[in-house]
Write a structure and sequence with these properties.
3-stranded antiparallel β-sheet; Arc Repressor Mutant, subunit A; mainly alpha; 158 residues; 6 helices
C-alpha cells in the first residue's frame, strides 16, 4: 500500500512539471519553426538581441547575459562573437568597470530584431492571447513568476 501511495504522490508531483516542460518545449519548437526560421538567424542570437532590446539602455554586461541565458561565459562569448561577426552586436567599454564590456545591438541587430518581432508576436498571439483570457494570462504570469523565483532561490542557495 505504501508503494502505491508513494507512486501516486510521485505522479501528482510530476504532472505539473511535465506540463510546464511540455508547454515550454512546444512553444519553443513552434517559435523555432515559424518565427525564428523566417529570420535566417539562430534562436540564441535572436534571444541575445531581444534581451539587449529589453535591457536598460539596451546594453548588458556579459555576466548578465550569462545569468539570463543560463549559459557559461565561454558559450555566451561565442554567441556574442557570432553576433559581432554578423554585424548584429558590438562590445563597448563599460564606463563603470574598465575590465568589462557592455554588449549592444548594432543598427543591423536592431533591424533584425524589428523583423523578428512581428513573427514572434504572431505566434504568441495565436498560442497565448487567442487561447487564454486576460485573467488567465495574468494568473499564468503570476504562477510562473512564483516558480521562477523559487528556482532562482534554490540555485543561489546551492
Amino acid at each position: 500500500m505504501t508503494n502505491r501511495t508513494e507512486q501516486r504522490n510521485t505522479e501528482e508531483m510530476l504532472r505539473p512539471s511535465a506540463w510546464l516542460m511540455r508547454a515550454s518545449s512546444d512553444v519553443s519548437h513552434l517559435l523555432a519553426t515559424e518565427a525564428v526560421a523566417d529570420t535566417g538567424l539562430d534562436p540564441t542570437t535572436l534571444d541575445l538581441l531581444l534581451r539587449l532590446r529589453l535591457a536598460p539602455g539596451r546594453r548588458l554586461r556579459g555576466v548578465d547575459l550569462c545569468e539570463q541565458l543560463h549559459k557559461s561565459p565561454s558559450h555566451v562569448s561565442r554567441v556574442i562573437d557570432r553576433a559581432e561577426a554578423a554585424g548584429l552586436a558590438r562590445r563597448e567599454p563599460d564606463p563603470n568597470d574598465r575590465r568589462a564590456h557592455l554588449i549592444a545591438a548594432t543598427p543591423a541587430g536592431e533591424s533584425a530584431t524589428d523583423e523578428y518581432l512581428p513573427h514572434l508576436e504572431d505566434v504568441l498571439q495565436r498560442v497565448m492571447f487567442d487561447t487564454l483570457s486576460s485573467d488567465e494570462i495574468e494568473t499564468l504570469i503570476s504562477l510562473l513568476s512564483k516558480v521562477s523565483h523559487a528556482a532562482r532561490s534554490e540555485m543561489s542557495s546551492n
